[in-house]
Amino acid sequence: MTMPAMAALARARSGWAGLWRALLAACMLALAAPHATAQPFNTRFVAIAFHGVVDRASELDDDAVTVDRLVALLDWLRGNGWQAISLDDVARAHSGERPLPAKAVLLTFDDGYRNLYTRVYPLLLAYRVPALAALVTEWLDVPPGGVVRYGEREVARERFIDWAQAREMQRSGWVEFALHTHALHGEVVGNPQGNTMPAAVTRRWSAEAGYESALAFTQRLRADLARGRALMQRELGRAPRALAWPYGRYNATAVREAQAAGFTQLLTLDPGLADARTPLAINRYLPTHNPPLSELVTNLRPETAEVRIARLACLDPAALASGNATEDDARLGRVIERARALGLTGVVVDALQRDAQQRVVGAWFPTRELPLAGDVLSRIAWQLQTRAGVAVHVRLAPRDVAAVLGGDAARVERLYDDLGAQVPLSGWLMEDGTPPASDLPLGAIAPDARTDAAWVVAEHRRAHLAALPRTPDRDAPAWHALTRLEAARPGLQLLWLAPASRDAAPAPHRLADFTLVPQSVDAAGVPGVIDARLLRWFNAAAPPDAARLAAVARDGQRRGTVAFGWCPDDPLADRPAAAAVASDVSSRTFPARR
Length: 594
What we know:
The chain is α/β, with parallel strands linked by helices and 594 residues long. The protein is 36% helix and 18% strand. The protein folds into three domains: 3-35; 44-183 and 238-298, Glycoside hydrolase/deacetylase (TIM Barrel, Alpha-Beta Barrel); 310-589, TIM Barrel (Alpha-Beta Barrel), CATH 3.20.20. It is built from 18 helices and 26 strands. The chain starts with a helix and ends in a 9-residue tail after the last helix.
């Protein structure tokens, strides 16, 4: 008998009439119970990472929004059943104490701009919604009238809130403060060529000492987090429980140090729904370029799949190596400009140097396991990403590494550790793996989520890597290699090169962002595909003919192909000629003009 039925019985009056009424009530409850719909214990929510909130469009930078856009969103949330939640709500859902609302949103504001106090705080009070604000404590500790080093500029201290304003907002109960690190919201020199990269994930380089050691990097993180927590404890009376990674960049070492320092909730800028069950990786949507309300609303439901247009080409760093640093830099500049002209979305770059017989003779990044052919991969990757705006997928097959390292699994893993630590790659090309067995765990994905949405595929992949046994099966080396890279560069894209097959459109690898389908550019037509994660990979012994590539690209797009690439490519000789193919292959001119 259910508890409500027992209570009804206990409250009934004595005698047959009372007993009859109690039994009747119990039966009615029992009959109703099977028809009641059990509500799932929701732990999913959306988190939004706002930055500055300004009055006029003339004041905008890339990450700021105008006040009217924020007001429109707050109005829309209230009118459409959304509830703003706090970190307390996330913590209660994590512990199983109380589920989150079905439409839950966490509003966060990074960097501690003065308009957090003058514009955002009054809105929070008016709408009675909570928010989380992440502070860079070094900036707040600058005295009035001073300057703050903000990126590559120096700005007035008064651009940011002060501790008194932070205390006032905290006392209201509507604003909680997180740490945005003490002094890691900036960049450090990350290679001999002088590229500056995010400080929280980059091993510093100097002419005097070379690269920072793993131990020194860890100690730098540890000291910074301790300093930030101590300042917030001193000024706000409490140490923060949450940490927001600067630029959304983090790695396994940073997560480990944050956890050891006492942080229980870590905020990223990774896409997709956040989940209270994984508080050390809270995904956040970053609005950029002052998006309209329609775009803000669309990103509250990230389950929907997007059409992922892709244009890829290969690059061998050997083509850029002239023996003269000035000439090498000029060659890289030509590669970057050509990538822009072609409208590429990504470049697949070789990590290893090979001789004429295709034997591995060195690496294009510093590693303990192979001779250094040249410390250039880091610069190539960073310049292509920041100047050409393309993803850089590194090509480094475990079978090639194992062959040259005598099959020593520990040495293979160390090499991948070195690659992840030294090179700011955005993806990896897996060449020697097969699709995993269908019974492997896929993680807890919302049942209505489209499985080809990028963040859902990434979540499937993380669940697979977490459950990966250390077994000697055929595919273990490839998955273990990805595990090492993912630890150093979370959020990597995975390209999977499918085996050559007569099947023109094989099923996509369910754990890969793109499955590269090998095909000759001379084939008669390119079959159209519906799946957005299949990429036609035109490969041969030489770069494709420009006229043929343009014709195949036009035909493929008309048939439904939205992703393709080619290998090899000869950027210095401009083969295929960018001027001849750009209008047909560029991602900027999709779909094909008619």
